């Protein structure tokens, strides 16, 4: 299955993608994670991306498009993928369409995570991330076993620079202006399915599994957990 997840920051796209990836054996392509990884490694792309990301603005289209194209051309993408946080602009959507058409791998569903502002604010302000391995936590909804310390690698948890209150408002504006128009675009193509990003992870996952079955996808769980 080839999926795109669209929704405002804090809609739970990354968390849900993590579950779907394991359950359905798809690869998870998160442009935000890839860019943060480039920053951590200090690559040329990371250096360029950092200034935009810290301000809550979008990284220029050409940079992100090249990153995603390279990822989708790797052999493991043929088993299916979840695009999380891409496309985010009409130009990215157009480029994705032509890349996938050329590869003979059209999208199956675009999931729009409609989410209330109250839930977004609560999720983003409480989100913490491991500075080393990138694992996500939430101070109340999904706390680590030991406060401030990553369960997986024992490193210190930090707040993402773009999750600070003053930056969240800007990210929401950017989302409304540049990304929200894609909802209409994918609605016109018949690919869009709207779900509630306000739901808890497990509840939304059930809704998604039903939706996939209704759309005729043979949902075979690959995970045993
Ligand atoms: P995310 O982890 O998806 O919330 O993304 C964090 C930040 O990475 C965004 O605020 C942007 O600065 C940058 N970013 C992620 N994906 C994209 C994209 N598709 N286009 C442009 N910038 C992006």
Would you kindly provide a brief summary of this structure?
By secondary structure, this protein is of the alpha/beta class. The protein contains 9 helices and 8 strands. A hairpin with a 5-residue loop joins β5 (127-130) and β6.
Could you explain the architecture of this structure?
The protein is of the alpha/beta class. The protein has one domain: P-loop containing nucleotide triphosphate hydrolases (Rossmann fold, 3-Layer(aba) Sandwich). 48% of the residues lie in helices and 15% in strands. The chain is built from nine helices and eight strands. The chain has a five-stranded parallel β-sheet with strand order 2-3-1-4-8, sandwiched between helices. It has a three-stranded antiparallel β-sheet with strand order 6-5-7. The protein is globular, with a radius of gyration of 17 Å. The structure holds adenosine monophosphate. Residues 9, 31-32, 35, 52-53, 56-59, 64, 85-86, 88, 92, 162, 171 line the site of adenosine monophosphate (AMP). Adenosine monophosphate binds next to α2 and α3.
Uncertain runs with pLDDT below 50, 5 residues or more?
none
Q: Find the CATH topology.
A: Rossmann fold
Write down the overall geometry: globular
Structural class based on helices, strands and sheet pairing: alpha/beta
Order of strands in the sheet with most strands: 2-3-1-4-8
Query: In the CATH hierarchy, what is the superfamily?
Result: P-loop containing nucleotide triphosphate hydrolases
* Known CATH architecture: 3-Layer(aba) Sandwich
Strand content: 5-15%
Largest sheet: number of strands, sense, barrel closure: 5 strands, parallel
The count of strands amounts to 8
What binds here, in terms of ligands, is: adenosine monophosphate
The first-to-last residue Cα distance is 21 Å
Question: How many domain units?
Answer: 1
Determine the number of helices (DSSP H or I, runs of at least 4 residues).
9
Helix content: 40-55%
Q: Whole-number radius of gyration?
A: 17 Å
| The CATH class | Alpha Beta
The SSE order reads EHEHHHEHEHEEEHHEH
